[in-house]
Amino acid sequence: NSFFVMTNIIKTENQLEQRCPEYPSGKAICSSDKSCEKGSVDIHSHGIQTGRCVNYNATVKTCEVNAWCPVESTEKPPEPAVLRRSEDFTVLIKNNIHFPKFNYTILNVPANLNTSCTYNKITSPLCPIFRLGDILQEAKENFSEVAVKGGIIAIEINWDCNLDSFHDCSPKYGFRRLDDKKIKPGFQFRYARYYKLPNGKEQRTLFKVYGIRFDVLVFGTGRKFNGVELIKNIGSMISYFGLVVTAIEIALCLGNCSRCSKSPFYKIYNRKKYETLLNPRQVMYVSYVDEPHVILIKQPLKTSLQHAQGSIVESHPVKFRDAGGCCTSESSENLDNEEYELGRPLRRGASSPHCQKWCCCGNCQPTEKYHEQLCCRRKEGPCITTSHWFLQLVLSSHTLKKALLYKDPFLNLTDGNINNQLRHLAYKQYVHWRFGSFDLEDRAVIPSCCRWKIRDTYPKAGNNYTGFKME
């Protein structure tokens, strides 16, 4: 958490929305109207230039602007600070810390707190009431100097707790400055108070406030004796002294002659010592529309991929590649009848959650292969293929063709083989949309409902599809 204490202020009163000379700084100073460009806005200006060069005072001319007038002065903040006596303010900081592993919670405010105490590193190190001037002194800063332009100070609460029977769990406080006082010191912001004049016009008073922001940073470490862990560690240490095994290994290696290698004991020993390596385990990645994760599932499958147990590998990063993104920003009028763009309705299988036990959306096609028995959802609900974004990001021929032309500007879109390219690109679009990366393309499994939706939209001659290849 943080809290802010105001120490200095610049006030600009009675501002009205009208025309007035800009504050004389940088490009605002002019000699004639030619120096002022009508409608121009500088990053440091207070308004929009009118194109006129007017008198700011008797000696200086500046460009006239439409702004809240009179404009704010960019002079340095008052010195000494207006509220420099705020160093005598005190603040009570309450902080409780919880160690869930040990079910232990503690507060930094003692039960018998002396409300008249003030923190002192030597005499009252546990008092949670701090004088602001003392905080800056502990941070090796002068409050009067910091109060002019403000600053950012960290109040660090460090808990180092021994949670055994005779526990010791007390906070230690530390203080340091966070902003760089050499490069860009200070902390300030503006706010305004608005008023309504009798004539109906709006008037305001602008405040540029300087002050010190105190950031409370909490760190904690808890320790507790655990006999079980101690025994485990002792057992681990003893294992290092298993010299008997080493000695047997050496003896067997030295006695590895042709006569010994034929003995039954040596054969049994070799079978126990060496494990036959099988092929690397195959892995697949799946993503459900109703779960925010990508799931890793290992082969071999003993049931449908939909019901296979896996592990979460990352949070779901929903994004798609730039070529598709630039296309989807256009009007969606061309997408209204996208489902029938090729002149044929999509496949309407007889599948349903009742006949396909692994399907939760009702649009999956029957298959005997476990690794193809995957739905777009983990729980029952609407199919992702019915969503607007599936149509726009995956099925839209307008989007896919633009993506193909982005890669090959001279591609012939009237080629009879264009359906194959559109279908494969639609697969990639789905993988990038639901898995967030093309890196998983070879291992990412597209749900049955989505795969057949794409195939029906961009069919292959003869309907001879290879499916997901298991290497």
UniProtKB/TrEMBL annotation:
Superkingdom as given in the UniProt entry: Eukaryota
The keyword Glycosyltransferase is annotated on this UniProt entry: no
UniProt-listed Gene3D superfamilies: atp-gated p2x4 ion channel domain
Segments forming domain P2X purinoreceptor 7 intracellular: 285-469
Keyword Lipoprotein carried by entry: yes
Database matches in Pfam families: P2RX7_C, P2X_receptor
GO-annotated biological processes: bleb assembly; calcium ion transmembrane transport; membrane depolarization; organophosphate ester transport; pore complex assembly; positive regulation of cellular component organization; positive regulation of interleukin-1 beta production; regulation of transport
GO cellular component: plasma membrane; postsynapse
Main subcellular location: membrane
Membrane topology qualifier: Multi-pass membrane protein
Reaction catalyzed: Na(+)(in) = Na(+)(out); Ca(2+)(in) = Ca(2+)(out); K(+)(in) = K(+)(out)
Signal sequence, start to end: none
Places the protein is found: Cell membrane; Membrane
Alphabetic keyword roster: ADP-ribosylation, Cell membrane, Disulfide bond, Glycoprotein, Ion channel, Ion transport, Ligand-gated ion channel, Lipoprotein, Membrane, Palmitate, Phosphoprotein, Receptor, Transmembrane, Transmembrane helix, Transport
InterPro entries, per database record: P2RX7_C (IPR046815), P2X7_purinoceptor (IPR003050), P2X_extracellular_dom_sf (IPR027309), P2X_purnocptor (IPR001429), P2X_receptor (IPR059116)
Single Gene Ontology MF annotation: extracellularly ATP-gated monoatomic cation channel activity
Family from the record: Belongs to the P2X receptor family.
Cross-referenced PANTHER family: P2X PURINOCEPTOR, P2X PURINOCEPTOR 7
Record's function text: Receptor for ATP that acts as a ligand-gated ion channel.
The protein's name: P2X purinoceptor
Source organism: Calonectris borealis (Cory's shearwater)
Taxonomic placement: Eukaryota, Metazoa, Chordata, Craniata, Vertebrata
Recorded name of the encoding gene: P2rx7
